[in-house]
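Researcher: Good morning. I'm working through a list of sequences from a screen, and I'd like to move beyond sequence-only analysis. For each chain I'm collecting a predicted structure so we can compare shapes side by side. This is the next one on the list. No need for commentary yet; just the structure.
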Amino acid sequence: MSTPASSTPVVPAAAALTAATEHTLRDGTVVTLRPLQRSDAELERRFISELSPQSRRYRFLGQIGCPSEALITQLTTVDFVHDVAFVAVIAGAQGEREAGVARYSRSPDGSRCECAVAVSDEMQGQGLGTLLMQRLITVARAHGIGEMISVDAAENSAMRDLALALGFSRSADPQDACQVVHRLALQ
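Model: Good morning. C-alpha coordinates for this chain:
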Protein backbone atom coordinates (compact mmCIF):
# COMPACT_ATOMS: atom_id res chain seq x y z
CA MET A 1 0.00 0.00 0.00
CA SER A 2 1.46 3.36 -0.94
CA THR A 3 0.93 6.60 0.90
CA PRO A 4 0.19 9.88 -0.84
CA ALA A 5 3.12 12.22 -1.45
CA SER A 6 3.04 15.11 0.99
CA SER A 7 5.20 17.80 2.49
CA THR A 8 3.81 16.88 5.91
CA PRO A 9 5.08 13.51 7.15
CA VAL A 10 2.66 10.96 8.56
CA VAL A 11 3.33 10.46 12.25
CA PRO A 12 3.95 6.71 12.76
CA ALA A 13 2.17 6.68 16.13
CA ALA A 14 -0.88 8.24 14.48
CA ALA A 15 -1.17 5.30 12.07
CA ALA A 16 -2.25 3.10 14.98
CA LEU A 17 -4.94 5.65 15.82
CA THR A 18 -6.64 5.05 12.48
CA ALA A 19 -7.33 1.38 13.17
CA ALA A 20 -10.96 0.26 13.32
CA THR A 21 -12.31 -0.01 16.87
CA GLU A 22 -15.61 -1.25 18.28
CA HIS A 23 -17.57 0.66 20.91
CA THR A 24 -20.82 0.04 22.74
CA LEU A 25 -23.07 3.10 22.97
CA ARG A 26 -25.32 4.01 25.90
CA ASP A 27 -28.28 2.13 24.39
CA GLY A 28 -26.19 -1.02 23.79
CA THR A 29 -25.68 -0.45 20.06
CA VAL A 30 -22.26 -1.62 18.87
CA VAL A 31 -20.57 0.71 16.40
CA THR A 32 -17.28 0.41 14.57
CA LEU A 33 -15.19 3.57 14.23
CA ARG A 34 -12.94 3.41 11.20
CA PRO A 35 -11.34 5.69 8.64
CA LEU A 36 -13.70 6.98 5.96
CA GLN A 37 -12.72 5.71 2.52
CA ARG A 38 -13.53 6.60 -1.09
CA SER A 39 -15.47 3.34 -1.31
CA ASP A 40 -17.86 4.76 1.32
CA ALA A 41 -19.40 7.19 -1.19
CA GLU A 42 -22.85 5.55 -1.22
CA LEU A 43 -22.78 5.07 2.55
CA GLU A 44 -22.03 8.80 2.98
CA ARG A 45 -24.68 9.82 0.43
CA ARG A 46 -27.34 7.76 2.20
CA PHE A 47 -26.27 9.11 5.61
CA ILE A 48 -26.55 12.75 4.50
CA SER A 49 -29.83 12.15 2.68
CA GLU A 50 -31.37 10.53 5.77
CA LEU A 51 -30.41 13.34 8.16
CA SER A 52 -33.30 15.56 9.15
CA PRO A 53 -33.35 18.99 7.48
CA GLN A 54 -32.22 20.56 10.77
CA SER A 55 -29.32 18.12 11.18
CA ARG A 56 -28.21 18.76 7.58
CA ARG A 57 -28.42 22.52 8.17
CA TYR A 58 -26.35 22.21 11.36
CA ARG A 59 -23.74 20.06 9.61
CA PHE A 60 -23.39 22.15 6.45
CA LEU A 61 -24.47 25.55 7.86
CA GLY A 62 -27.09 25.78 5.17
CA GLN A 63 -29.83 23.78 3.57
CA ILE A 64 -28.89 21.03 1.17
CA GLY A 65 -31.12 18.37 -0.31
CA CYS A 66 -29.65 15.41 -2.07
CA PRO A 67 -25.85 15.74 -1.88
CA SER A 68 -24.15 16.30 -5.24
CA GLU A 69 -21.61 13.94 -6.70
CA ALA A 70 -18.96 16.66 -6.23
CA LEU A 71 -19.77 16.99 -2.52
CA ILE A 72 -19.65 13.22 -1.98
CA THR A 73 -16.31 13.02 -3.79
CA GLN A 74 -14.95 15.88 -1.68
CA LEU A 75 -16.14 14.28 1.57
CA THR A 76 -14.77 10.81 0.77
CA THR A 77 -11.40 11.91 -0.63
CA VAL A 78 -9.34 11.85 2.54
CA ASP A 79 -5.53 11.73 2.63
CA PHE A 80 -5.14 11.38 6.45
CA VAL A 81 -2.41 14.01 6.42
CA HIS A 82 -4.23 17.22 5.53
CA ASP A 83 -7.74 15.82 5.88
CA VAL A 84 -8.87 13.20 8.38
CA ALA A 85 -12.29 11.57 8.63
CA PHE A 86 -13.72 8.78 10.72
CA VAL A 87 -17.04 7.09 10.18
CA ALA A 88 -19.09 5.17 12.73
CA VAL A 89 -20.90 2.22 11.18
CA ILE A 90 -23.42 -0.29 12.45
CA ALA A 91 -23.42 -3.77 10.93
CA GLY A 92 -26.78 -5.14 9.88
CA ALA A 93 -28.45 -7.70 7.67
CA GLN A 94 -28.52 -5.17 4.82
CA GLY A 95 -24.81 -4.30 5.27
CA GLU A 96 -23.20 -1.37 7.02
CA ARG A 97 -25.19 1.70 7.98
CA GLU A 98 -23.45 4.98 8.79
CA ALA A 99 -24.39 6.32 12.22
CA GLY A 100 -22.00 9.28 12.34
CA VAL A 101 -18.93 10.93 10.90
CA ALA A 102 -16.28 13.35 12.14
CA ARG A 103 -13.58 15.07 10.14
CA TYR A 104 -11.02 17.80 10.13
CA SER A 105 -9.12 19.75 7.51
CA ARG A 106 -5.77 21.37 8.26
CA SER A 107 -5.09 25.03 7.61
CA PRO A 108 -2.50 25.68 4.85
CA ASP A 109 0.23 26.28 7.45
CA GLY A 110 -0.74 23.12 9.40
CA SER A 111 -1.03 24.92 12.73
CA ARG A 112 -4.77 24.44 13.15
CA CYS A 113 -7.66 22.47 11.76
CA GLU A 114 -11.36 22.98 11.31
CA CYS A 115 -13.55 20.09 12.39
CA ALA A 116 -17.12 18.93 11.91
CA VAL A 117 -19.17 16.09 13.34
CA ALA A 118 -22.59 14.72 12.44
CA VAL A 119 -24.59 11.94 14.08
CA SER A 120 -27.72 10.40 12.62
CA ASP A 121 -30.88 11.69 14.23
CA GLU A 122 -31.79 8.33 15.75
CA MET A 123 -28.33 7.86 17.31
CA GLN A 124 -28.07 11.29 18.95
CA GLY A 125 -27.74 11.29 22.73
CA GLN A 126 -25.91 7.92 22.82
CA GLY A 127 -22.34 9.25 23.20
CA LEU A 128 -21.37 8.73 19.56
CA GLY A 129 -20.48 12.37 18.90
CA THR A 130 -18.14 12.28 21.89
CA LEU A 131 -16.43 9.08 20.66
CA LEU A 132 -15.95 10.48 17.17
CA MET A 133 -14.60 13.81 18.40
CA GLN A 134 -12.26 12.18 20.93
CA ARG A 135 -10.74 10.09 18.13
CA LEU A 136 -10.38 13.19 15.94
CA ILE A 137 -8.76 15.20 18.74
CA THR A 138 -6.30 12.39 19.49
CA VAL A 139 -5.22 12.16 15.84
CA ALA A 140 -4.93 15.94 15.51
CA ARG A 141 -2.66 16.04 18.57
CA ALA A 142 -0.55 13.19 17.20
CA HIS A 143 -0.14 15.16 13.96
CA GLY A 144 1.13 18.18 15.93
CA ILE A 145 -1.82 20.44 15.21
CA GLY A 146 -2.00 23.28 17.74
CA GLU A 147 -5.66 24.27 17.62
CA MET A 148 -8.96 22.76 16.52
CA ILE A 149 -11.90 24.98 15.62
CA SER A 150 -15.51 24.36 14.71
CA VAL A 151 -17.87 26.94 13.24
CA ASP A 152 -21.43 26.10 14.24
CA ALA A 153 -24.95 27.46 14.18
CA ALA A 154 -25.48 29.49 17.36
CA GLU A 155 -28.71 27.62 18.20
CA ASN A 156 -27.11 24.16 17.86
CA SER A 157 -27.34 23.22 21.54
CA ALA A 158 -26.11 19.64 21.01
CA MET A 159 -22.86 20.90 19.49
CA ARG A 160 -22.54 23.54 22.20
CA ASP A 161 -22.85 20.88 24.90
CA LEU A 162 -20.44 18.51 23.14
CA ALA A 163 -17.84 21.20 22.53
CA LEU A 164 -17.96 22.47 26.10
CA ALA A 165 -17.76 18.90 27.50
CA LEU A 166 -14.62 18.33 25.40
CA GLY A 167 -12.99 21.56 26.64
CA PHE A 168 -13.62 23.86 23.68
CA SER A 169 -14.14 27.56 24.34
CA ARG A 170 -17.05 29.33 22.63
CA SER A 171 -17.24 32.80 21.11
CA ALA A 172 -19.43 34.68 18.68
CA ASP A 173 -18.42 34.44 15.03
CA PRO A 174 -17.33 38.00 14.13
CA GLN A 175 -18.38 37.39 10.50
CA ASP A 176 -21.86 35.96 11.15
CA ALA A 177 -24.09 36.69 14.17
CA CYS A 178 -25.98 33.42 13.58
CA GLN A 179 -22.83 31.36 14.14
CA VAL A 180 -20.35 30.65 16.93
CA VAL A 181 -16.74 29.48 16.89
CA HIS A 182 -15.60 26.69 19.21
CA ARG A 183 -11.83 26.49 19.83
CA LEU A 184 -9.68 23.85 21.50
CA ALA A 185 -5.95 24.24 22.19
CA LEU A 186 -4.34 20.88 21.39
CA GLN A 187 -0.67 21.36 22.31
